Structure to design on (743 residues):
């Protein structure tokens, strides 16, 4: 510790003591304690920033490239290099040099959000592995922010043990577009659910002294043409939808940084968008952390500076290289640099990264962390259909598992979020004919091996599904057939449609025709169409289930655990039900090396009626609604009581009417006068067979308000109230009379 920092710590102790001397009580209330802690953080940040020269402050605002790895079109594509360079830089998404004379640390940035990312070991070598958590769609499907906070704590702890003090983790773009290749990195289509889940995850990461970055702010809801697209949406709709999700996550998680996105919003790139960054984020929301650009998201120095960007991330043109020059020439006040540097320093101090510096080589409990990943996969899998109680598989003798490369592992989503799992990537699948950043890659957790381990009394056979006729005949000779179907989502590309690729629909149809006891398990990062649904009695949506996904699938299918996930996205019956029949700007010939297409815009005419709200508005019947999910028992809701007036609270009874223990997730939907229903709260209720419980849900006041005439208001009037098992169920209905109010 340098003398400087010791002096800082000593002076803050003195100041705190002096401040306390004027306050009588010896026990501070939590709010006074929080306020004085915040003052302390501000003061320490100011002392450090003001001790920096202008050049040192500017240095903080320019993230550098932290890898020599080059993406090339060749077969090896990435050239892996040693994990740490001689000056201590960890190869990763980027770094910011430290200021040793002030004991200010180097910022080391790792990609997320699904773990400490290292795409298949390409970036820091095969030896650098981490816990591969399930897709964050599965996190949202748990409807359990507390559990996802634990995921955050674990990711934060792993990052810290690997020497990272900034995680680019906190993926939150609303799933407006179910063909978006990156939806698996986000938390679904509902602002409250996504905001609470991602906010909890951010809080968890930061509790381990690592800054978390919520991204991609905002409206980066599709990958096609992501660097040129102009999203058009009116202000009220913007505030009530994607921005509301960010607002909730930021409020709950207090992320140290926000990453602006590649796309434009109402004309301006989001990283140079005065309305978005200055007026809304820093102004209306009072955000005090820093805004970093997505990699290549800046296009103009002046606009970026005026638009509120604080930190420029690595790209070909370093637009922030001449910041000090601009100050010297009097084109920019020194305070513009100082304010930006202050935001960064403050966020780093606020998470405790100075007192608890991250250094590579820390201990990681792989087993405990893998178990947590498995628990999330088990909690977030969604049972979509289970006719005749085919699942759980009990007492069967001959089981054939078909397809999905299930003898070797489970699929992961592609792109920068890809985590090199413990044990390494098991293998790469054939990605020919599929747009993919990072090919098909599999975590070494085989559902077949896991089923065999659990059901030693049964024959568990495997057919790779490459020949539907052979697979059908194997199915015909089995008691039950399990088809595992795959569809990879990936950064940089969208899917042209909602179909399973590579003839898997035909495979499933052939197997189901041969054996009426067919189960389909979906490893996908988005909804898919199911033309075979009538002939398949059981469907389990497993998302990308991560490090122990095979074990999770096996335990769910055999009833060692009961499914409890609920859909965080609507599953449509076809693209014609969506606000846009085709993805604007989708190019079937696009590759990673294609030039940017010509600029184009997309009109979010659905406004804030995203997902299930769009289905309600258009009275369309989805294949499976948002919030839907079965388990191995049944629940009944009754006796709704609505308390209204200033606040809205509902109380009702949940009863487990089946023969197994299970978790119900009753959901509260509220429709303000003249508007569609919005998810306003939910509960997770674990009940034994025959058990019942009174349950109370408070409506989130932020969801009851609407943005009208440039302000949030809750109009007085009758609000439709529904407690149901999904957005598509009629459930228990009531009316609430609410008084006028704000948020
Ligand atoms: C992605 C970000 C990522 C960044 C750094 C970008 O291409 O959009 O999510 O954090 O790269 O790797």
């Amino acid at each position: 510790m340098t003398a400087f920092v010791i002096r800082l710590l000593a002076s803050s102790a003195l100041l705190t003591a002096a401040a306390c001397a004027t306050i009588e009580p010896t026990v501070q209330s939590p709010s006074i304690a929080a306020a004085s802690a915040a003052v302390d953080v501000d003061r320490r940040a100011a002392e450090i920033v003001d001790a920096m020269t202008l050049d040192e402050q500017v240095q903080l605002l320019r993230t550098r490239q932290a890898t020599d790895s080059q993406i090339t079109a060749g077969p090896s594509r990435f050239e892996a290099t040693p994990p740490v360079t001689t000056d201590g830089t960890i190869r990763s998404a980027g770094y910011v040099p430290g200021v040793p004379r002030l004991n200010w640390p180097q910022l080391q940035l790792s990609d997320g959000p699904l773990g400490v990312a290292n795409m298949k070991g390409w970036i820091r070598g095969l030896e650098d592995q981490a816990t591969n958590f399930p897709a964050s769609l599965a996190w949202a499907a748990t409807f359990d922010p507390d559990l996802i906070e634990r995921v955050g704590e674990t990711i934060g702890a792993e990052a810290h043990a690997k020497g990272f003090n900034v995680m680019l983790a906190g993926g939150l773009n609303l799933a407006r577009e179910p063909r978006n290749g990156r939806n698996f990195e986000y938390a679904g289509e509902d602002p409250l659910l996504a905001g609470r889940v991602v906010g909890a995850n951010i809080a968890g990461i930061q509790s381990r002294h690592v800054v978390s970055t919520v991204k991609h702010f905002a409206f980066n809801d599709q990958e096609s043409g992501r660097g040129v697209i102009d999203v058009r949406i009116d202000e009220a709709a913007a505030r009530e939808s994607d921005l509301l999700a960010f607002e909730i996550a930021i409020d709950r998680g207090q992320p140290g940084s926000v990453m602006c996105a590649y796309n434009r919003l109402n004309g301006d790139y989001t990283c140079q968008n005065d309305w978005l960054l200055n007026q809304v984020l820093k102004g209306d929301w009072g955000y005090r952390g820093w805004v970093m650009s997505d990699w290549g998201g800046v296009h103009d120095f002046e606009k970026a500076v005026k638009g509120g960007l604080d930190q420029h991330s690595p790209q070909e043109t370093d637009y922030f290289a001449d910041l000090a020059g601009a100050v010297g020439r009097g084109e920019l006040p020194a305070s513009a640099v100082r304010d930006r540097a202050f935001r960064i320093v403050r966020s780093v101090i606020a998470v405790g990264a100075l007192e608890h510096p991250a250094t590579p080589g820390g201990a990681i409990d792989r087993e405990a962390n893998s178990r947590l990943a498995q628990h999330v996969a088990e909690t977030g899998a969604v049972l979509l259909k289970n006719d005749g109680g085919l699942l759980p598989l009990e007492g069967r003798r001959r089981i054939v598992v078909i397809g999905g490369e299930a003898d070797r592992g489970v699929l992961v989503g592609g792109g920068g979020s890809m985590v090199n799992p413990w044990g390494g990537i098991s293998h790469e699948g054939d990605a020919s004919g599929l747009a993919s950043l990072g090919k098909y890659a599999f975590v070494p957790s085989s559902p077949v091996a896991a089923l065999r381990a659990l059901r030693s009394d049964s024959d568990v056979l495997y057919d790779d599904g490459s020949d539907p006729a052979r697979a059908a005949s194997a199915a015909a000779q089995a008691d039950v057939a399990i088809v595992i179907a795959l569809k990879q989502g990936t950064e940089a590309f969208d899917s042209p449609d909602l179909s399973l690729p590579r003839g898997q629909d035909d495979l499933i149809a052939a197997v189901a025709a041969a054996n009426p006891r067919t189960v389909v398990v979906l490893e996908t990062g988005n909804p898919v169409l199911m033309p075979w649904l009538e002939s398949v009695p059981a469907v389990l949506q497993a998302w990308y289930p991560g490090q122990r996904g095979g074990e999770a699938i096996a335990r769910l299918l055999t009833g060692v655990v009961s499914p409890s996930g609920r859909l965080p996205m609507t599953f449509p019956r076809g693209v014609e039900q969506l606000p846009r029949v085709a993805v604007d700007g989708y190019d079937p010939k696009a590759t990673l090396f294609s030039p940017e297409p010509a600029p184009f815009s997309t009109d979010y005419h659905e406004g804030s009626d995203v997902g299930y709200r769009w289905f309600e508005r258009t009275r369309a019947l989805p294949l499976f609604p948002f919030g839907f999910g079965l388990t191995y028992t049944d629940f009944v809701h009754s006796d709704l009581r609505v308390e209204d007036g200033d606040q809205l609270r509902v109380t009702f009874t949940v009863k487990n009417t089946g023969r197994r223990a299970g978790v119900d997730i009753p959901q509260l939907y509220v429709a303000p006068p003249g508007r569609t229903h919005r998810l306003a709260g939910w509960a997770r209720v674990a009940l034994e067979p025959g058990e019942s419980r009174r349950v109370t849900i408070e409506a989130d006041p932020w969801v009851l308000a609407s943005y009208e005439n440039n302000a949030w208001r809750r109009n007085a009037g009758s609000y439709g109230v529904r407690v149901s098992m999904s957005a598509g169920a009629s459930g228990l209905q009531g009316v609430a009379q609410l008084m006028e109010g704000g948020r």
